What does this fold into?
Amino acid sequence: MSEPLITYELDGNIALIGLNRPDKRNAINDPLVDELRAAVLRAHDEADVAVLFGHGSNFCAGLDLAEALARATGQIKPSRKRRRHNWHEVFDLIARGPIPFVAALHGAVVGGGLELAMSAHLRVCDESALFGLPEGQRGIFVGGGGTVRIQRVVGTTVMTDMMLTGRLLSPAEGLQEHVVRYVTPAGEALAKSRELAARIAKNSLETNWMIINVLPRVQDLSHDDGLFMEQLNSARARPPEAEKRLREFVDGKAAKIQDNQG
Ligand code: 1HE
It folds into this structure.
């Protein structure tokens, strides 16, 4: 049997999902997207937080350009029916599902690899990471939600520069442009991501769901509609988990906020 394109492991309540095509720098082809969909749905069922990472020396080299060429030359036939783009579907399962995702990044994080990383809720990279959008050099355009997700995070100016010039961002620039929130020494992004995932897993599931589902939608709303949406959701957040956690604090049994520094 051939190696899986995606590895899946459950560590307590944290799912570890690994891109596993290191010989092709974890380039994304259709079979990999299918396996990723299955892994994400499994994590939705049995984990409270998931960590996404790449096996080998890179997180992900983006779209499989050999598959793209086969499609462009008609060797892979187009579907007879229009369907939702499989990347959009699967990346949205990550971005707007029931549990938070942390992406652990290293090496190349380019094109569709960056789009995939941006569907996670928190990104950590090590010093080897390089962020880029080389679509312009390949004669194609972003297709994995980058116009929506990357542009909202880094802004039109930075994304336009990355796409027009093919310029790569260093980890320090990634931090500055909010592509990542944490930078680690080489080889430590996965360990840091697991540590953050364990911390996130201590929150209530309900609050985690609201953080990842309400915030991005409110970002798209007007001031009034945003406050309305906030009120609807914060009213919903009370019993019974909140009551238990509020009581723990009032009774002096809850962790102090200082325990979460760093
Ligand atoms: C690939 C791919 C790929 C590597 N599709 N096969 N993405 C890119 O434009 C990035 C293209 N890749 C690279 O620039 C480099 O490969 C890396 C900087 C990521 C890594 O370099 P390196 O020296 O470690 O590896 P390599 O020797 O370039 O590649 C090793 C193998 O991986 C080689 O195959 P082999 O059979 O000759 O060993 C490469 O062909 C293969 N490989 N990257 C297919 N991307 C839906 S819209 C999204 C649009 C995009 O994502 S555009 C960005 C595409």
